[in-house]
Amino acid sequence: MKLTLSLGLVALLVAACTAGQYGNRWQQQDQRSSRFQRGQQSDQSWHGAFYAPSSQRGYQSKQYQNYQNQYQSYVAGQQGQQYQDQQYPGQQGQQYPGQQGQQYPGQQGQQYPGQQYQQYSSQQGQQGQQYPGQQYQQYSSQQGQPGQQYPGQQNGQPRVADKDFLIRQKAVLQLLVHITQPNLYPELAEVGRKFDVYNSAGYFKNVQAYQNFLAVYKQGVLPQGEIFNLYNDDYLNQAIALFDLFYFAKDFDSFISVAAWARDNYNEGQFAYAFYVAVIHRDDTYGIVLPPLYEIYPYFYFYGNDLQQFSQAKQQGKNAYSVYTNFSGYNYGSYYGNYYGNQEQLLSYFTEDIGLNAYNAYSHLYNPFWLSAEKYGYNFQARGEYFYYYYQQILNFYNLNRIANYLPELEYFDWDKPIPNGYYPNIQYHTGKPFPPRPDNYPLQSIRSYTIQDIQYIEYRIQEAIDSGYVYSKEGSRIPIVNYIKGINLLGNIVEANGDSVNSRYYGSYQSMLRSLFALIVDPGYNHGVVPGVLANYETALRDPAFYYFYKYINRFFRQYAYNQPSYKFEELAFSGVSVKNIEVEKLYTYFDYFNVDVSNAFYVNNAEEAKSLNYVARSLRLNHEPFNYKLYVNSDKNVSALVRVFFGPSYDAYYSSLYGFYAGGNEGYYQGYPQQQNVRDAFQYVNFDKLKEYFVEWDRFPVNLVPGENVINRSSKQFTSTVGDYPSFDQIYQQVEAALQGQGSFYINDNDQQCGFPDRLVLPMGSKEGTPFAIYAVVSPYTQQNQQPSQQYQQNQQYSCSGVFNYNDNRPLGFPFDREIVDFNQFYTPNMYFKDVFIYQKSFQQVNEPNNTA
């Protein structure tokens, strides 16, 4: 029941190293000159000439240049005005939560009234919030997914955990309590003390993995109390060696024995990381619920100055305390540089969202880049394609929020220019060492392990593969990548440099190297002992505007590869005898609401009883939306199985008004949106839809059985296959387990293993009081037995993808039909497709949090 693991990679997991520990060890990326084959003169002289997106796609058109000044003037006039109709806690002009020393509603330090979970009772609109004893209630009203088994159901019936499972679940939870100090539970600590790491070969089904671990351990590993980082090769190899012990333990008892030993003898960050990945991937821990990582390691998710207030409360002997924190998007000017008048701060409600950053980290836990199919025996066939699609979707959600805030298109990264947007994270490690800030317009520099030119050599080789239509294997043979399904996967494995890359020696570790270059930008030579920036950690990377800047750059490889493929023909897109006649959508509202997180694990305790007594609650505002329903009206001339895909993206009015500083629909000759379906073709005579489609995100994908005549398909936003709701807290999970062990309730196992996905709250970009135009697009395609994935492949995809889009896979590319170039919209637009204009409205703070206020 990997039911709702808290998305977010063991927050301990990634991190920079302290000055004494880093030294020359940071990013020892194996400076194998042979990997880059620098002897080729053409490689040495090449510098970024392989791709010219600005000229191809008109990003730097004269029209765009003309409106840049207009836009900057607009931003200057709009700063701070976006929320002028929304009075947040206190009077207008009040300093909002997030500023030190400020007292907020309810007063800091006040204990929430009532029971521990009463804090959730007043939170309106937290879709998918699971309360104690109600793990699966959110699924009870979901209909319309043929054959779908929801969490807690086996053949349509709930599967109740037995005593053995409950004991396992409890042990896993206890090992994660106050992870930065020794084990608080005597029984588990004793199990760890009895484990003799040097004489335990009988505990493992892969003795070679055990021997390899001993070799690593005897050489010396990262001490406890030091900062673990995935992008340091030494630290990562040590964590993988520990994971191998966990993964290859012969049974659950052996696994827990090894874990209990490692809990008190291995670096806490490496332990937590390896432990999380092992619980996700071991067969005998399938269904175990892991707690939210923003509770296990709050440091990566909450401002350091706010956590300091809890520390002061503990020093004063207070066991219960609350702080209003992370009020991103309201505290203008505090955490960003001055580029374009602090425009990036407008998006901090999205980039610093706790659930979003946890999702990014958890996606890595499901599919670590170092995991090898050959070594661990899994077969995630779409691994490389999923890497590409995952980051494309994240980037598109970010871009939709840029459009919603009337921000210009994200620039393309240029090696010859500094990084435009600065960022001040205001978060720190458990050691107290802060993440370094990055000023505006800061230049990239080579680091100790490799140079900028090294990365450009790799770029050239990847580009060469795209242009030539083949890649080189380790043996030097050519592997064709002309076939899209196979080719996009091979290309994705190469760019990610994961364990299935066909030739990591030749194509290098491109993504890791580029990411490390950004993460070390402040102190590339490690001359001042500065730890790497937020981009070095999956839990924190999405906070930095530079993340989207360089992932747009990485994404260009896949776009160009797709554009080398032939455009879809009409017959490849059409569905004979099937047409979509209409989409009806309920009115869409977004708003900000409160969210409470227990951050007690961030503070030292003497024993388990003291840990139990702490109730430190961080309360933050976050973007949410009201649940909504939509209807598809589909006509069919026969009984037929179909697969529905639903996308969401910009109306071209909103897109062009954001990019160019004017309302495109207000110009004579421009058609405003898609209210009359027969005019869609006319509308796109004035718009580059091929460019517009790059901003669409996939909301939903599900099978239907069509009957002759009109079919009305009802769907709820709660049913989206790509999203998940909020996750149960540690205390919620633990209390349910305890109650079940005492015979006072049932604990249900999630057979569907769908615990990870994009936060449901963020599927809509922030609206406006007047309504911001966007568009919904639906396409209905054939879904026959021949193009459905085998059940075994479905299980593999579920285990490694961290995305519900793999629930229903018809062997078409991810992103279909937007995955190819659209040269002629008339050729693309078929009767089984439909566009619908929608508007997103933003409710004021008072309307949501003060029910009697209708402002």
UniProtKB/TrEMBL annotation:
GO MF terms, alphabetically ordered: nutrient reservoir activity
Name recorded for this polypeptide: Allergen Cr-PI-like
Domain (Hemocyanin N-terminal): residue spans on this chain: 165-286
Pfam families: Hemocyanin_C, Hemocyanin_M, Hemocyanin_N
Domain Hemocyanin C-terminal, chain residue ranges per copy: 568-656, 684-841
Lineage of the organism: Eukaryota, Metazoa, Ecdysozoa, Arthropoda, Hexapoda
Keywords: Signal, Storage protein
InterPro entries linked: Di-copper_centre_dom_sf, Hemocyanin/hexamerin, Hemocyanin/hexamerin_mid_dom, Hemocyanin_C, Hemocyanin_C_sf, Hemocyanin_N, Hemocyanin_N_sf, Ig_E-set
Positions of the Hemocyanin middle domain: 292-558
Keyword Metal-binding set for record: no
Region (Disordered): 82-158
Residues of the signal peptide: 1-19
One Gene Ontology CC term in the entry: extracellular space
Residues forming coiled coils: none
Record bears the keyword Mitochondrion: no
Species of the source: Thrips palmi
